[in-house]
């Protein structure tokens, strides 16, 4: 659709604003994988309260907005094996790399961090090759 | 205070992911699929997010966080195996399902059983990562 890019830009500004609040107020980098991972493996339990509050807002606010925002379709595959494999790859990968799309992508690139830029280039390349391979060659996704 | 700021930040992040369409796996995979019907939306989302964030980094200079403490120091520009290997694994999972950690959380309440399975598997991977990393470092020491 034509207005998709406008909504993308507006949503992007909100995401950047979220990162700005987390940085300027709490002095932390808004990385979703780091915030979740620290709770899962115990490394971030000393800051558990703010992590849980962040995740609470992240999970619940879209649910609150959903009734006034009806055009949402997530198009998630029904193949639970694909989903489980993808989830494990995302979980292991983001913790090895110490960041994902929000931490390395949004927060890293915006401070011209070499690690963030390299990570972003690598996961986009890997993601692109994966989609091309599994969609156009195997026809799985 | 920190808790309230974190809640506000999380809510803004969730709203942004919903409004931008990044909870839609078809838009993410559509952006990655350069040989298909390419969808440019994700580039606008990234670009839009980087602008306020870059301003925020400028504002950190000579200041301290509102809620106390220190701003995170810029990490050493060291790349290393784990960064590259991890990013490749993450990218593969991201491409396979069209979900990354932020959107998987933002869509958890309306993404059905698949969304729950994804988050569960992701948590399992995150739980296993430290010991996998230690094992890899022992077997093939990174310089």
Automatic annotation (TrEMBL), chain A:
Q: How does it sit in the membrane?
A: Multi-pass membrane protein
One GO cellular component term noted in the UniProt record for this chain: plasma membrane
Which residue spans adopt a coiled-coil conformation according to this UniProt entry? Answer: none
Lineage top rank: taxon = Bacteria
Where in the cell is the protein located?
Cell inner membrane
Record-stated family = Belongs to the TsuA/YedE (TC 9.B.102) family.
Protein name stated in the entry: Putative YeeE/YedE family protein
Main localization of the protein? membrane
Q: Does the keyword Cell inner membrane apply?
A: yes
Q: Which residues cross the membrane?
A: 6-25, 52-69, 81-100, 112-134
Q: Transferase among the record's keywords?
A: no
Keywords for this entry? Cell inner membrane, Cell membrane, Membrane, Transmembrane, Transmembrane helix, Transport
UniProtKB/TrEMBL annotation, chain B:
- Name the source's superkingdom: Bacteria
**Stretches that traverse the bilayer:** 41-59, 79-97, 109-129
Q: Transmembrane helix: present as a keyword of the record?
A: yes
What InterPro entries does the record tag this protein with? DUF6691
* Assigned keywords, A-Z: Membrane, Transmembrane, Transmembrane helix
> A Pfam family for this UniProt protein?
DUF6691
This protein's name: Putative YeeE/YedE family protein
């Amino acid at each position: 659709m034509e207005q998709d890019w406008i909504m993308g830009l507006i949503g992007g500004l909100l995401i950047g604003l979220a990162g700005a609040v987390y940085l300027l107020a709490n002095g932390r980098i808004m990385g979703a994988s780091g915030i979740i991972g620290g709770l899962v493996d115990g490394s971030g339990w000393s800051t558990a309260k703010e992590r849980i509050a962040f995740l609470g807002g992240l999970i619940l606010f879209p649910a609150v907005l959903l009734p006034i925002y009806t055009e949402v379709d997530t198009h998630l595959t029904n193949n639970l094996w694909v989903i489980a494999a993808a989830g494990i790859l995302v979980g292991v990968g983001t913790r090895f790399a110490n960041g994902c799309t929000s931490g390395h992508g949004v927060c890293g690139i915006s401070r011209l961090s070499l690690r963030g830029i390299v990570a972003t280039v690598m996961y986009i390349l890997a993601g692109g090759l994966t989609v091309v391979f599994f969609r156009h060659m195997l026809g799985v996704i | 205070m920190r808790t309230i700021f974190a809640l506000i930040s999380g809510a803004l992040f969730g709203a942004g992911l919903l409004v931008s369409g990044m909870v839609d796996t078809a838009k993410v995979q559509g952006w990655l699929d350069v040989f298909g019907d390419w969808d440019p939306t994700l580039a606008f989302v990234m670009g839009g997010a980087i602008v306020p964030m870059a301003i925020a980094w400028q504002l950190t200079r000579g200041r301290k966080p509102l809620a106390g403490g220190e701003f995170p120091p810029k990490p050493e520009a060291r790349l290393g195996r784990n960064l590259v290997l991890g990013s490749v694994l993450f990218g593969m999972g991201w491409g396979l399902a069209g979900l990354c950690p932020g959107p998987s959380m933002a869509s958890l309440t309306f993404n059905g059983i698949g969304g729950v399975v994804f988050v569960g598997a992701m948590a399992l991977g995150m739980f296993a990562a430290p010991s996998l990393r230690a094992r890899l470092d022992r077997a093939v020491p990174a310089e």
